[in-house]
Amino acid sequence: MDLTSPSRQPAGPEQPAEPVQPAQSVRPAESVQSAQSVQPARPARPKLPDLPESRTEADGSAVIRALSYNVRSLRDDEDALARVIRACAPDLVFVQEAPRFFRWRKHAARLAASCDLVVLSGGATAAGPLLLCSLRAFVERTEDVLLPLTPGLHRRGFATAVVRFGGARVAVLSAHLPLDAAERRAHAEELLTRLEAAGTPYGIAAGDVNETPDGPVFRRLAGALHDCRVVAPWGGEHTFVRSGPPRRIDAVFATPGVEVLGCGVPVGLNGVADADLAAASDHLPVLAALRLPVGPAGAAGG
Question: What is the average pLDDT across 189-201?
């Protein structure tokens, strides 16, 4: 017995066939598409205008790119990190939370090589801040600074150097300011003192401030130096978006006389993928394009 078909009826006069109903109503393709729940397409991110490229002008002034990046001790995706840094094409990279322990020099050298850069100063000998540079930089001197240890808190320091680009001479300093408010104030004052004492016409300090622009330490730095993001906004603003409200706690600062051409998070920059930014670190980088005029007569000396 066929259990899948209807029971057979006894033979008898043939009944007229009933009209066959279609299994479903067939509609034009346009109707089918409109019946479906179609989500609106996410608007494409507008392409970010590029910053000026690094170059040395005929008068000796130099346009450089400076990148500040907290790399979380390289605990995330190093390949993604290297792709972001290379796409930014920096002349200087101000690194925070560089590797400080086992074979830290090897890790720092590997990061620099993967980004077509070289190690300038810092690392474990500066308690975490690190400076990388391109071969455009002529290095005059470097100094790794360990700041006084506050009992019960992490050791902090600065990676510092004096370099030249073309005929412009500039002091550079990478910093990771403390979480403790009192110690953060003291380290910010030391940062300003060392930048001024470098004896150069210009200075650039960058790093993780661990404070938003409305905080007293951030305001102190922005009062003495140019907060490059405020002078020439470009790209994104917030540098820490992993937890809590999005906020700007990383910055590039420059002394008066440095012309700021643009500064911000390189979200949407050609070659910088959102997925790489998310995978590279828990912080987002800050990229600045700066013009360094030729310093006063004699300022390029040692």
Answer: 97
Distance CA 94, CA 209 (A): 13
The residue with greater pLDDT, 181 or 8, is 181
Is residue 180 scored above 90 in pLDDT? yes
pTM above 0.90, yes or no: no
**Nearest-5° angle of CA 298, CA 94, CA 240?**
140
Give me the residues paired with residue 169 across strands. Answer: 164
E strand residue ranges, 189-238: 202-208, 226-227
pLDDT over 90 (residue 5): no
Whole-number Å distance between alpha carbons of 68 and 74: 15
- For 111, other C-beta atoms within 10 Å of its C-beta total 23
Give me the numbers of helices (H) and strands (E) for the chain, helices first please: 7, 13
Of the candidates 183, 189, 194, the one whose C-alpha atom is nearest the C-alpha of residue 154 is 183
Query: Angle 181-197/216-224 helices, nearest 10 degrees?
Result: 10
Instruction: Report the pLDDT averaged over residues 282-295.
Output: 96
